[in-house]
């Protein structure tokens, strides 16, 4: 191994890298991390952290609204202040991460990396060699290739808006489209969502998605179905989006039509590393078609959701594999996910579509949580849960729509992942009253 500069060299510094690279370095491995942009990648800089910081006032606004005047406040969001607060909260994260990595002995190499052979990456004319390479280059926003595409903005631009435009048009019906629609609407913008077909958030329970969309419509968000954009033109004081369903006039356009794996320009094809439309193809050990080159995080072609906790799990799996304390293929646990709308929709484990398709295996119990006295404390009016049990009465899946859905799903996750039996469920004594106590009540 000593002929190489490093034991492991990572391309990219996001969660798919640092959650595993750090402990690996602490265990004495020689690690290099190459980063072309900000340390930490999408999640802390242009994703989860930025988004959830901007969303905090929305949660508060909704709670004030539900309290029906118990607390006197307008709930109006001061967008420039919200933006400034978000910036304060996230701006030191890259430095903090870089300091931790350097303190653990990791070499940070800045610049755009490209593989030149199975052990070598070139950055700005210099080459670095390692026994193992990990490609963790993430994804970038897809931008529609239409006339006037220069007027389209991506989620990074949206999360950095200094001033909230009066009118926003959002293209797409995925996580980013719905979260941004919620945020912009709550901040006072007039929001139109252009849908490719007729449904949004296809990975979630359609009945719960309909409830959330109905609430957004009530708040003034306009959804236009089958409105594929064909062109954008500039008028005197605004923009016009020409769609299959007519012309939409707007001040600002967010293109949230998906994200694409960063596989181009890395020299992958030259090395015979297989890729497809979804990313880099790997085996169950996250190994590419070149045995000493691995891939991790969003850049992977995979069946599990492309989320931060998935990237973290993969980077830690590789850490254990490289350190020799893991020999088995990767085995993903139940992965919890939410869309940060208001109310949220969160889910984990077996999903509703699978449960409905297999009634002999799964039993779905639906509860309207408005009847739950604890939810009445915070006047939760859109609050429903679907619990999925197997034939042994073990909880195998949950999906909830409510303001507190994230905490409910997180608190039920151990029961799902470890297959708690009814007897074990009875032994769980949560703090009372609390959301976890409410989530676990009547499960056994
Ligand atoms: C707006 C938004 C909101 C999101 N919200 C959530 C959320 O709430 N919860 C959640 O779980 N997930 C969320 N996600 C998804 C989450 O951000 C990703 O799943 C996660 O960041 C993936 O980590 P990664 O390390 O695989 O990729 P990234 O974090 O994208 O890191 C890849 C890194 O590689 C670098 N890189 C790329 N090419 C090269 C090269 N050639 N040389 C050197 N460096 C290179 C990039 O600059 C980048 O820093 C969100 C994503 C977006 C866009
Ligand atoms: N809360 C979270 O965990 C969170 C939040 C944001 C993003 N993310 C992650 O980031 C990734 C990207 O999110 P996203 O919302 O960009 O993607 P997405 O795949 O969730 O949604 C893309 C949307 O664009 C639409 N679309 C696709 N092609 C189109 C076209 N040509 N014209 C018009 N519309 C088109 C799709 O129908 C879909 O509704 C996802 O993998 C997601 O896991 C997660």
Automatic annotation (TrEMBL):
<dbReference type="Pfam" id="PF02852">
    <property type="entry name" value="Pyr_redox_dim"/>
</dbReference>
<feature type="disulfide bond" description="Redox-active">
    <location>
        <begin position="43"/>
        <end position="48"/>
    </location>
</feature>
<keyword id="KW-0520">NAD</keyword>
<dbReference type="InterPro" id="IPR004099">
    <property type="entry name" value="Pyr_nucl-diS_OxRdtase_dimer"/>
</dbReference>
<keyword id="KW-0274">FAD</keyword>
<dbReference type="InterPro" id="IPR023753">
    <property type="entry name" value="FAD/NAD-binding_dom"/>
</dbReference>
<dbReference type="InterPro" id="IPR016156">
    <property type="entry name" value="FAD/NAD-linked_Rdtase_dimer_sf"/>
</dbReference>
<feature type="domain" description="FAD/NAD(P)-binding">
    <location>
        <begin position="6"/>
        <end position="313"/>
    </location>
</feature>
<feature type="domain" description="Pyridine nucleotide-disulphide oxidoreductase dimerisation">
    <location>
        <begin position="335"/>
        <end position="436"/>
    </location>
</feature>
<dbReference type="GO" id="GO:0000166">
    <property type="term" value="F:nucleotide binding"/>
</dbReference>
<feature type="binding site">
    <location>
        <position position="298"/>
    </location>
    <ligand>
        <name>FAD</name>
    </ligand>
</feature>
<keyword id="KW-0547">Nucleotide-binding</keyword>
<dbReference type="Pfam" id="PF07992">
    <property type="entry name" value="Pyr_redox_2"/>
</dbReference>
<dbReference type="GO" id="GO:0016491">
    <property type="term" value="F:oxidoreductase activity"/>
</dbReference>
<keyword id="KW-0285">Flavoprotein</keyword>
<dbReference type="InterPro" id="IPR036188">
    <property type="entry name" value="FAD/NAD-bd_sf"/>
</dbReference>
<dbReference type="InterPro" id="IPR001100">
    <property type="entry name" value="Pyr_nuc-diS_OxRdtase"/>
</dbReference>
<comment type="similarity">
    <text>Belongs to the class-I pyridine nucleotide-disulfide oxidoreductase family.</text>
</comment>
<feature type="binding site">
    <location>
        <position position="113"/>
    </location>
    <ligand>
        <name>FAD</name>
    </ligand>
</feature>
<protein>
    <submittedName>
        <fullName>Glutathione reductase</fullName>
    </submittedName>
</protein>
<feature type="binding site">
    <location>
        <begin position="172"/>
        <end position="179"/>
    </location>
    <ligand>
        <name>NAD(+)</name>
    </ligand>
</feature>
<feature type="binding site">
    <location>
        <position position="258"/>
    </location>
    <ligand>
        <name>NAD(+)</name>
    </ligand>
</feature>
């Amino acid at each position: 191994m000593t002929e190489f500069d490093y034991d492991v060299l990572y391309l990219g510094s996001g969660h798919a890298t640092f959650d595993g690279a750090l402990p690996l370095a602490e265990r004495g491995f020689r690690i290099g991390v190459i980063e072309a942009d900000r340390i930490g990648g999408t999640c802390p800089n242009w994703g989860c952290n930025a988004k959830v910081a901007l969303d905090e006032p929305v949660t508060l606004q909704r709670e004030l609204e539900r309290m029906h005047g118990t607390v006197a406040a307008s709930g109006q969001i001061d967008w420039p202040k919200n933006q400034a607060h978000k910036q304060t909260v996230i701006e030191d994260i890259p430095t903090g991460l870089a300091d931790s990595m350097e303190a653990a002995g990791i070499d940070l190499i800045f610049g755009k990396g490209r593989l030149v052979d199975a052990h070598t990456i070139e950055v700005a004319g210099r080459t670095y060699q390692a026994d193992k390479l990990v490609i963790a280059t993430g994804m970038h926003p897809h931008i529609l290739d239409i006339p006037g595409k220069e007027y389209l903005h991506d989620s990074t631009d949206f999360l950095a808006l200094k001033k909230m435009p009066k009118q926003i048009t959002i293209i797409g019906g995925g996580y980013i489209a719905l979260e941004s629609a919620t945020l912009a609407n709550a901040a006072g913008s007039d929001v139109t969502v252009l849908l490719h077909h007729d449904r949004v958030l296809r990975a979630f329970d359609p009945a719960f998605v309909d409830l959330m969309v109905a609430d957004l419509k009530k708040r003034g968000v306009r959804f236009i179905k089958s409105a594929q954009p064909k062109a954008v033109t500039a008028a005197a004081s605004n923009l016009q989006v020409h769609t299959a369903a007519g012309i939409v006039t707007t001040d600002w356009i967010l293109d949230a039509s998906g994200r694409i794996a960063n596989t181009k320009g890395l020299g992958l094809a030259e090395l015979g590393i297989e890729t497809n439309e979804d990313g880099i193809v790997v085996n169950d050990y996250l190994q590419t078609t070149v045995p000493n080159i691995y891939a991790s995080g969003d850049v992977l072609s995979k069946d599990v959701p492309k989320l931060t906790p998935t990237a973290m799990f993969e980077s830690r799996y590789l850490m254990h594999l490289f350190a020799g304390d893991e020999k088995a293929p990767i085995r993903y646990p139940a992965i919890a996910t939410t869309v940060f709308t208001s109310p949220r929709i969160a889910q984990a484990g077996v999903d509703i579509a699978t449960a409905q398709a297999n009634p002999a295996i799964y039993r779905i119990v639906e509860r309207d949580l408005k009847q739950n006295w604890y939810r009445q404390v915070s006047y939760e009016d859109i609050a429903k849960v679907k619990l999925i049990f197997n034939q042994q009465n073990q909880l195998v899946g949950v999906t909830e729509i409510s303001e507190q859905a994230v905490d409910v799903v997180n608190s039920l996750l151990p029961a799902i992942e470890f297959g708690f039996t009814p007897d074990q469920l009875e032994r769980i004594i949560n703090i009372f009253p609390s959301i976890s106590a409410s989530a676990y009540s009547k499960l056994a």
